[in-house]
Amino acid sequence: MPEQLQSWEFAENVFAACTNRIQGYSKSPYAELNLGYHVGDEAEWVRLNRLQVKTQLALPTEPHWLNQVHGSQVIEITKVGTGMIPEADGSYTTMVNEVLAIQVADCLPILISAVNGSEIMALHAGWRSLQAGIIQQGLSRLGSNDLRAWIGPGIRQCHFEVGLELYKVFDETYFCPGDDAQHLNLDLAGYAADLLRKGGVTDIIDTQICTVCCNDTYFSHRLEGPTGRFAALLWKAN
After folding, report:
1. Does domain 3-154+211-236 have CATH number 3.40.190.150?
2. Relative to the CA of 186, which of 37, 152, 165, 192 has its CA 20 to 30 Å away?
3. Do 91 and 66 meet the contact criterion of CB atoms below 8 Å apart?
4. Phi, psi dihedrals of residue 79, rounded to the nearest 5°
5. What is the 3-state secondary structure (H, E, C) of 31-59?
6. Which residue from 116, 113, 64, 115 is spatially nearest to 90, judged by alpha carbons?
7. 161-163 and 90-93: which strand pairing?
C-alpha cells in the first residue's frame, strides 16, 4: 500500500510517496506490491500494481520509470514520456505534474527538493552509484542553493556486510566490524548523508528504516534473492 510522506514537508507544492510490499497482486517471491517489470514477475501483476499505486495516490501522470544500472547518469524530465525507458539512476525536473520514480529493494531512494518548490530530483543510491558520484552529479544539475533531502528505506549498516575490497573504496569511518575478519558492515546511508551535506544540503531527513529488518514491509534483495521492488515517488504542482 503506497503512503504519501507526511512526516516532512519538501515544499508547499511538492508531494512525495513511498510504496511498500503490502496489498498488491504479485505472488511469491514478489508478493505483493511489486512495481518492477525487470525482476521476473508476471507483467500483468506489475501493471495492476502500478495502476493501483497511481490510483490510490491520485498521481497526475504515469511515473517516469528508469532503467536503473547502478551508475551516475541523471536525466532531466522535460515532457511526458514517449514510451522509451531511459537508462539512468536519477531524474530531475522543473515541470509540474511530472512524477519522478526510483525503484529499490535495498539501495537507498533519495528525494531532493528546492525549498521554494521550483525543482525536484530522485536518485537511486546503491554503493556503486554513490561511488560513481550520483549525488554530486545530481546536485550539479540543480540551480537552487536551498535544498531539502529525504533518505528512504534501504539496507542499513546492521545488515550491509561487504568484503574487504570496499574498505579501499570508502573512508574507514563508514565501517564497523562484520561477522568475521573478511567482512565489514558499511554505513551506506551515513555516507550518502555526508555527500549531501558536502554538496550544500543541510536539511536532511533519514527514515533510518532498514529493508532487511523490516522485510515484512519492504522488499530486500540481500535477504530474499529474487524479490520485488518498491518505489519512492516525487512530483510538484503549480
Report:
1. no
2. 37
3. yes
4. -160, 175
5. CCCCCCHHHCCCHHHHHHHHHHHHHHCCC
6. 64
7. unpaired
